Structures are given as C-alpha cells and as structure tokens.
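Appendix B, Record 12. Input sequence as logged:
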Amino acid sequence: MSSQDAERREIEAEQAYVDTVYERLDASAKVAQSLVVEGMARGHVGNEGGLVERDAMVYQASKRLSALNAAHDGLVFGRLNLLDGESRYIGRIGVRDAEREILLIDWRAPAAAIFYQATAQEPQGVIRRRVLRCSNDKVIGVEDDLLDGDNAPDDLVVIGEGALLASLTRARDSSMHSVVATIQKEQDEAIRAPSRGATTIGGGPGTGKTVVALHRAAYLLYTDRRRFESGGVLVVGPSAVFMSYIERVLPSLGETSVTLRSLGEVVDGLRTARHDEPVAAAAKGSSRMTAFLTRAAAAPIPGSPTELRYFYKDDVLRLDAQQLDRIRRQLLSGARRNRAYAKAPAALVEALWRQVRGERALEKGREEFVEIITTDDRFVDFVEDWWPPVDPIQMWRSLPVVIDQLNRGAFRPEEVTALKASWQIGEPSIQDVPLIDELRYIIGELPEPTDEDADDPKQLMSFERRERDERVDRFRSTQSIEDDGFAHVLVDEAQDLSPMQWRMLGRRGRHASWTIVGDQAQSSWPFPEESAAARTAALEGKPEHAFRLSTNYRNSAEIYDLAAKVAAIAVPYPDLADAVRRTGESPQHHTVGTAELVDTVRASAREILDRVDGTVAVVVPRDRLDALRSDLVDLIGEHPDRLRVLDGLDTKGLEFDGVVVVEPDGITDESSAGWRTLYVVLTRATQLLTTVGTTDRWSNRIA
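Logged structural output:
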C-alpha cells in the first residue's frame, strides 16, 4: 500500500470518529437551545421567582450554547494511542455520548496533559501521538509522532513528518490561532503552572509566549471556573491592533467570558489608540507623575472663586484666598477630594460664623445663621463653584493650565513643553489613560447621602438643591471605582509597561493571580529599573513562578540571525531563542536615494505579496506612517486583507509571512528604545524580510 493510500485510509477512519463527536455536539447544542426557550417561557409565570429562574436558566444555557458554537471549528484535534491499548481523543471541549461515556477529552483536563508532556525520551505510556488537521468538521490530514517504537504494534500506521513542523509552514492571516494541537512540553508546563501568585513567561521572539499565556487563561478557567469566571479574567495587550489579532484564540478554546482590553481601553469609558511622541510618553509614564497628579487634585479648579463675601445682619463676613486655601487643606486632610464634597458647606459656614460679631446676629444664634446662609442662593452658588464634584477627565483637562504652577522641578523644561503640547490636543493618548485612572483614585467617588445628612441643613444643601440632584447622581454613576478588581490579570508585552501603567493594572489585580509575558530585549520603555520597581509594587509580594521558552518557532534562522545582531546592540545580554528551521531565504537590503524610496518599497511589498500566501506588513517610522499609507493606497486597495502599513510599536505581538522595513535608521532614531523597536520589527517576519532605506548606518553597525 502506498503512503498516500495509507494516509487516505487513516483520514477516513478518523473522520468516522469525528462525525460521531459532532453528532453529540449538535445534540448538546439542541438541548442548550431548548433550555433557553424553556427559560424564557418561565418568565411568563407572573411572579418574581419565575423571573429569577428564567434569568438563571437562560444565562447558563446561553453560555453553554456559546461555548459549543465557539468550539465547533476543529473540535477534535488529537489522539493518543496508549501502551495499554486505549485510545484517547483530545479536543477543544469535552464531549460525552448518550450513556455519559467520554468521547472527547477537554485539552485542559488532567487526562489530556500527556498529549503535551510525553516525549520520545519520556513517552509516559504513549506509543503514538496524532494531530488531526481539520477544516471545520472535516479531517483533511493527520500528522503523527511515534514516541515509543519499541512497543508499537506491527500494524500501527505512522503518517507525516510531525505536526509541529507542519504547522510552522502555515500561512499567516489577520488573526492569531490556537496552537492547542501543537503545544510543546516546555509550553505546557507554563500553561499548567500553579494558579496562585504570578506566573512569568519569558523568552525571545517567536517562542509562543502570547499564545501560551492565552491557553493558560483558558486552562485556569477550566480548572477553577467558579473563582475565575465570577471574579473575571482581564487580558491586557499593547494595542487595539494586537487585541484584534488575538481575539479569536480564547473563544476557539471554549472560553467566551474573558475581558480583552488594550492599554488604551483599560479604564471604562476611555478608548484611544494614539501614542505620544517619546519625550511626552516618558514623562507621562514616569513615577514622578504620581506626586504631580496628587498636587493637581488638591489644587483649586482653574477659574474657581478666590474670595467669599457675605453680608449678614450688621456684619460683613469675608474669606480671602489664604483662608479658603487653609479650609481646602483641612478638608483634604485624610480625605479624597470628592469624599470631602459633602463637608465643604459646613467648613465654610463654620469659618464664617466665627467672624459674626453683631449683637442682632449673636442674639439670633448659630442655628438661625446656618438656616439662612444654607438656603441663600448666593452662598449655594459659591459652594458649587468653589468645591464642585470633579470628574477625572475634567481634572485631566486642567493639567496644561496648572503644570507650571505645580511642577516644582518634577519635570525638565523640555518635558513640560512636550506635556503641554500633548495635553492641549484635548483628547487622551494611550499614555494618558493611566493618568486619568490615577486621578480617579486620588479624587475618589462622591459619598452617598445618609439619613444623618437629611437632618442637617448644611449637608442637606450639599445634596438636595434644585437640579443639582440629577447632575450629582449622574456624576456618581460614572465614578464607581469599586468594580475594578479581577480574579486573574494577564499582561502581554509587559516589558513595555511604564510605572504608571503598572499602577493602573496593579489596582485591578490586588487580589488576583497574574500571568506576565515579556522579553526585556523588546522593551519600548526606556527606564527598565523604574518599571521593575513599579511591577514589584503592583504584585504586592505575590510568589512568582518563572518559565522561559527557548525555541523560536516563528522566524526562519536566516531572519533571526540578522535580528539577533540587532538585539546585541539593543540590550547587553539579550534572551536569544533557537530558531528551528531554515528556508534558504536570506533577508534582502536596499539602500536607495530619497526619490526612489517609495517606488522601491512598493516593488518590494508587491514581490513578497506574490511569493507568500499570507499577510505582509510594511513597517515605517511613526512620523512617516500617514504619508506612506497614502503613497501605497493603490497596493493596499489591491490586497486589503493581506497588506498592513504600521509603525514599529503597533507591530508588537504580531507576525506576518513577509515584512518590508522602511528606513531602519529612522526607527532606531525615534527614541532611546529605537534599537529594541527595530529588533521587534525584524522578528515579525516568518518567511521573507526586506529592508529599504536612504541610509545604512544600522547595517554597518551590525556588520
């Protein structure tokens, strides 16, 4: 029998089993759908119990239906032939037959662990490990690893050259895919690490850090669903481009209850993709920003009144700027700004009463004074202007106005100039998001009025006057900071986080376990020691479990050899992985005149598009991005799903079949982390790499 005939027969045999599994999957989906219908019907019972029962049934059934639908594509991907004659099929979720016998083992279950952990050196009772390559519900190929040939039956068929190498040649598209069928032993150990504390996953580019971390999130949800689903799992990545790239991975593993956010989306209600230029970005990310924001939160709102004059009986009562400032400091002593909101009227009334000297006023007493002043529109209007409820966006918008007054040497003149220029744009950048989050916590929430307040005219005025009720309630509803905690926080590209970003994530993971993914050689943050201190503070002494991935599955050796030379300039001792394959395709380099640059870039991109089946990226310095997108609009229009034009930072975590790097010297000159950014860019390419520039300083330096 020929090898082709043998493979065809094996595929037919596996297809028969896969068909049985899908029949049970469809039956389970019908049951879940019927439960949704039944649950909705119970809402017509007409009592509160029926509504509660309806909501519970519909929620659980809908969640199950969603998981079944998400796992449909490539449901069955693995088979183990064991020494005792048993066969185990491994899949994205577990499936049982009508008699509750196991048809398919969830990849996260303990019984599936040996699918990833068995090796030829330690087969752990596995004779043959088979990966089923499927398109939807159809088996289109099989790849076998023979792990224990000495105990293999004579009639055991072994097909292919191994699933991992086969998967490495697959063309890339616009989404990251699950690698659940080809996880390697060192990757599996990181996935199944203890759930408590912080698990760090390190390693060079292409080692699978991101996809391993996502599989770990799915594994944790499977092993302790009550804890992690009720508390929530937050996955944070560097950019919206990256989050779009990875968004299909967890649903394909049967998990649909994870929160995915880029760094520009971590704070509810904010969404931004704009990066600041390097000087402003470094200043905003620095831990120096914390003290400045604290001072800004305590300062008067620009334009607020600086004097209070009130005529009462025979007295002229006056609080000047110095006295108002003293009252402000007293109110802020031990209290957040918005928490002190309810106490501001009483503090002002008390200060004014101490100035009352007239006999008529003293005769009427303090109680009448309080009654008159707290119902006087002039006083109420002053309080609203002097100590209004403040939202963090409003306070953030005041920063360019107050920075000169409140800087106190924290930021150098060139940093102040860069900060003002950025803030005066009026819309937050990615680097502003943690500052706004910091302000949320510094100024605090508005307190809810209490029954005691209702009996006190001073407090009653603060909460129950005119249309202010609606305004304060609306403000309070947007200011909750009690719901930020998660049960698990997964941070990708963690080496890029600034101290302020670590503080932002630390608030959301105070009681969480963590998965932290990164490689210092790829860092875009210029001050690693400062960031490391902030990371330590965010983890609050949690035990750490460190894993290093050592094999580069992404890049060809030819591409990675070039990138490794750049890495050696970027950091003193880069963590270099071992590239496992060679393609015979060396990187191409073109140094051209300015007039020829765009035509050469277009020709290089077109050539790569013609030679590969998957995606291609043209990567350019940030200040050239818009211009080059315009220059290549025709080519982008021809290949809208395959060609991307990006700057270096937006390539973080992505991979492409081919990459054209435009003006490498421009990328290295962008910031103090420019060489690290170039290292990242070069390692995005899996098959073909071309550089095009008008200078070649970078290549001369690594020669």
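The chain has four domains: 3-168, 185-267+482-552, 278-415+430-469, 557-702.
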